[in-house]
Amino acid sequence: MDFTDLRTDGGQTELPSTTHIGESGLWIPPQLREFTGQVVFRTPRGTIQHYQSGGGELEPYYGMIDESAFGPAEEFRDAGNPKLAPDNVSIKHQGEEPIVLTVVTDPEVRCDGGIVSRPAWTPTAHTHDENRCQNCDSKVTQQFTRVFGDNSDTTWACRECTPYRDLQRGAGADPDYTRGDRQ
């Protein structure tokens, strides 16, 4: 099985090295969903063999595997696959080599099923770098930046220099925003 898909722009997408646990179970990357005969899932806790006569396609989330299947091997009474501990899953299609993915158990999930790699937000943590509005140099909180700033945690407008309606329309995240009364 070829684990790359052609994109509409002619490029290749590679099999991700991570997956995650969602509310419905283990997320299966699209490249691994189609199978013939059986798929074997191995987690630190144990092994699951998924059979389907003639093969088929797995759902995006595999409900038989949840967070309880992962953790340090010594935490399990009888770890089935201790070499995968604490956070790896092996997915093996019949007649093929297994694919090992790292499992993220508390991700920020993107709409395509991938995960966002962003440091955890700690509202009580203090940093030496004060967040400042790039338009008027007023101090803004980390929470304000997270809500109204751009994806690199930069705030381009704040309540001191921009009407709230413009902040709601994205002025804080866009350095080129021109609508409204930014002062």
Using the alpha-carbon principal axes, give the shape.
elongated
Task: Output the structural class.
Answer: mainly beta
Domain count: 2
Mean pLDDT: 80
Got a strand count? 11
Strand order of the largest sheet: 6-5-8-9-3-4-7
Distance between termini?
58 Å
What Rg, in angstroms, do the CA atoms define?
23 Å
Note the total helix count.
Answer: 2
Strand content is: 25-35%
Unreliable residue stretches: 1-12, 121-128
Helix proportion of residues, in percent? under 10%
Which sequence of SSEs, written as H and E, runs from N to C? EEEEEEEEEEEHH
Largest sheet: 7 strands, mixed
Biased composition (Polar residues): 10-21
InterPro entries: DUF7563
Pfam families: DUF7563
Region (Disordered): 1-24
Label this structure with key terms:
183 residues, mainly beta, seven-stranded mixed β-sheet, two-stranded antiparallel ribbon, 2 helices, elongated, disordered N terminus, DUF7563
Question: In words, what does this structure look like?
Answer:
This protein is mainly beta. It folds into two domains: 101 residues, no CATH class; 52 residues, no CATH class. The protein is built from two helices and eleven strands, in the order E-E-E-E-E-E-E-E-E-E-E-H-H. The strands form three sheets. The protein has a seven-stranded mixed β-sheet, with no helix packed on it. The protein has a two-stranded antiparallel sheet with strand order 1-2. Strands 10-11 form a two-stranded antiparallel ribbon. The longest helix has 7 residues. The N and C termini lie far apart (58 Å). The N terminus is likely disordered.
